[in-house]
Design goal:
- The protein is of the alpha/beta class and about 450 residues long.
- The chain has 15 helices and 8 strands.
- The chain has an 8-stranded mixed sheet, sandwiched between helices.
- Helix 2 runs antiparallel to helix 3 (about 70-85), helix 2 (about 40-60) packs antiparallel against helix 6 and helix 7 crosses helix 11 (about 345-365).
- The termini are far apart.
Length: about 450
Amino acid sequence: MMTSPRNHRREPIHVAATALSVERGGSATAGTGGHRSLIVVRVALGVIAAHVVVDSVMDLRPGVDATDHLVSGAVPLLALAALAAIAPRLRRGALAVLAGLLGVAATVGMVGAPVAAATRGDRGPAQLTGVAAAIAGLALIGWAIATAWSTRRRGGPRRRRILRRTGIAVAVAAASLFVAVPIGSAYIVANRSGPIHTTGDLGAPHRDITLHTSDGLSLQAAYVPSRNGAAVIVFPGIGGAGPTARARMLVRHGYGVLVLEPRGQSASDGDPQLLGWTGEPDLIAAVDYLETRPEVERGRIGGLGLSVGGELLIQAAARDTRLTAVVSEGAGTRWFAEDLHTPFPAWLIQVPFMTVSSAAATIFCDCRPPERLDHLVGEISPRPLMLIWTPRGQGGEWNNPRYHDLGGPTTELWEIPESTHVGGYAARPDEYETRVVGFYDQHL
């Protein structure tokens, strides 16, 4: 049977339409090899999902069970499954953007938590699968770049192509900075813990003790008995910054000192939360212990907190009047609502970044943000509070003058301009000792 001339004309039209679709960034599944090009994406999604399962259900810290990770396990798995399901239906350009953003988030989060733990010698299942997930994240970034380049539009005026590609690049960079990186950072907040270490020289013989929190965790601490009837809880920040030298300073003056390891850090039970959202019960347990000590007189318990530890002491003191006098050094902000008063133009980056990071941290930590510090600081009055800060600090430390104004007449503010974050003792050791010990001498 002969083919009509009309049918002869259809094939070139179809081929031309297909070529035009590819030129404009057509579907990833259109044409030969479309499905095969998704293998990298599917394998990477599977590797990341495997790490989520191991980290949420299998390789758990002491004091934690799988029911504590219902949200942090289920939400990421559902998101990964949804991306895997819609990937074959997406245009290759759109899929490249999503895969690239996921790759950035996974790489930041995994390098900051499980990979960091593996490099210091922690080689558990969560760390090993986290290393694999970091590699998967890098693979997604590479695949996204290659796919975006191969599907770029080649037709049209050159100036128009340059403007379009520049606009897309700027939009993707903004999405990486304000979406992918904050999500990865939130994963670090919920998963990074410090190495197990022994307590250093506190200036006098100490006893290693175990504290028990109201939510069932066991925390490691070291205690030097009081010689003057008063005791101070020294609460470190992320990574245990600076507690030992300050503890020795207080011990020299006869104070009892309790150096507390926060939950999820060192040998203490629980999941870490580097912004301190879940840490208030830790301080309450420390106060409970000091109240049992016969050498500590009633009403003579204080606190000295560094960075996140300083923020948590403000929070705990606002709710527990047994904390009679508190020194908070380097306190800043913990979630986006506390960042709303960030000075301009830093506001343009800090607030959008922390908004996404706070939402993601709520999922990864299976917890809600705490009450705002600017709402709590005034509740400490009439008990005394000393705020120590530096303009060269970090994490919203510039809010300390505002906290001072909100704290009322019993709140002191000491600015150390040449210091770094929680570096006041190193910057001015003699003045630091005079001021801080004098504060406790007066109020404890």
